[in-house]
Task: inverse folding
């Protein structure tokens, strides 16, 4: 038996779950989790940046060379790529050029050991969006990332649409068939995630990492509970169901 309570912990909205005598809690997270690809060959630097970004609730993958970087950037959706210039098999400039030639327009923030104007110009010419010289202050890195991600959000329409369901990412208003639907914070995050990846399968693992920013087995059941709540609010009473379960795999939101 699971019990859910919505509470405030350390001044932040959170959800408490009590299951088989064990207590779990998750902070509510209104902002979408951003996925970052960090391309950095220096192990200590990579783990330092990764850890720092994860503390800020970003999801981070690390590529230690150009080959892995290109593979990941072409096969996974990232919101931002942090790209070191000097890599063992190539340069950040060359990766940047390749990605842009392949019409991958993910924001790119270049990192280099040299605060060299020539590098900066070359970086921007090959298609990078911003530039930061090492050594840098971690807060400055965070500020640059936040600025780029804001730019990304502003470029796009804030309204996600699937069939007659609309979600406004700015106002958090949800409408189905012209009627407003009220969701709790976590239900909203889950629906937003499903809508961002509409017509694609999202696995429970992906949901736990992106919506809860946590990765542990006990979430599986929690996700099912929240999916059911969403179904009751989004699909109940409608002939056309939008939330689909894929046995053993996950969920898909589609017409
Ligand atoms: Ca390097």
Result:
């Amino acid at each position: 038996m699971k019990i859910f309570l919505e509470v405030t912990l350390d001044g932040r909205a959170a959800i408490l779950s009590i299951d088989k005598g064990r207590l779990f809690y998750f902070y509510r997270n209104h902002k979408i989790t951003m996925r970052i690809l960090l391309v950095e060959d220096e192990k200590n630097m990579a783990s330092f940046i990764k850890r720092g970004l994860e503390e800020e609730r970003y999801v981070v993958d690390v590529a230690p060379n150009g080959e892995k970087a290109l593979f990941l950037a072409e096969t996974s959706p990232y919101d931002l790529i942090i790209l070191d210039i000097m890599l063992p098999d190539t340069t950040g400039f060359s990766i940047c050029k390749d990605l842009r030639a392949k019409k991958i327009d993910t924001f790119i923030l270049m990192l280099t050991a040299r605060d060299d104007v020539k590098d900066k110009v070359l970086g921007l010419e090959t298609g990078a969006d911003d530039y930061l010289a090492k050594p840098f202050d971690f807060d400055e890195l965070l500020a640059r990332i936040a600025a780029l991600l804001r730019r990304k959000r502003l470029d796009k329409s804030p309204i996600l649409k699937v069939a007659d369901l609309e979600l406004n990412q700015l106002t958090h208003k949800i409408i189905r068939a012209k009627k407003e639907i009220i969701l709790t914070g976590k239900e909203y995050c889950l629906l937003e995630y499903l809508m961002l990846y509409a017509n694609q399968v999202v696995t429970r693992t992906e949901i736990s990492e992106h919506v809860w920013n946590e990765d542990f087995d006990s979430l599986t059941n929690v996700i099912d509970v929240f999916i059911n709540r969403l179904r009751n609010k989004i699909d109940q009473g409608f002939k056309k169901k939008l939330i689909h379960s894929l046995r053993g795999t996950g969920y898909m939101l589609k017409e």
About this structure: Helices lie at 43-55, 66-75, 92-101, 117-125, 138-155, 185-196, 204-210, 219-234. The domain at 159-253 is CATH 1.10.10.10 (Arc Repressor Mutant, subunit A).
